[in-house]
Amino acid sequence: xxxxxxxxxxxxxxxxxxxxxxxxxxxxxxxxxxxxxxxxxxxxxxxxxxxxxxxxxxxxxxxxxxxxxxxxxxxxxxxxxxxxxxxxxxxxxxxxxxxxxxxxxxxxxxxxxxxxxxxxxxxxxxxxxxxxxxxxxxxxxxxxxxxxxxxxxxxxxxxxxxxxxx
Length: 166
Ligand code: SF4
Ligand code: SF4
Prior knowledge:
Layout: H1 8-31, H2 34-51, H3 59-63, H4 70-80, H5 84-91, E1 92-94, E2 100-102, H6 124-128, H7 141-147, H8 152-165
Antiparallel strand pairs: 1-2
């Protein structure tokens, strides 16, 4: 993580400020056109993910509980040969925004080798994370600003955007 040496309070302030600055930058970029921003982000997504191995990181699985919808619950429960009610009881909680998410972090399906034990049937949210490719970038600007604190790929994609904007 960035700025690990800071106290938690100072870190929170820095994180809040840097998120706001990042969001301001992204919104300025959006004003130049969503399509243009999506294309620039998509190219950077390809470059950055060709250099980053998620298996060396897994920070998203360690720190952010993914959304899990009914279709996900049915698919994963079936694969684990569990009743959906038991699966929900064991693995799902409702978060402060009223959304269903995996109940604990690190994710209970993350192995010590950083492999996902339910990879083939993982939640849709896990497949889409971090929403920087597929020309989908501009729809998730607040999320990207937040994710710069968790995901090195998002951090570098946004730094790349800043560099090409200069
Ligand atoms: S389900 Fe798999 S991909 Fe999703 S957070 Fe858990 S370990 Fe990561
Ligand atoms: S936090 Fe980003 S770089 Fe790390 S595993 Fe998740 S998607 Fe990959």
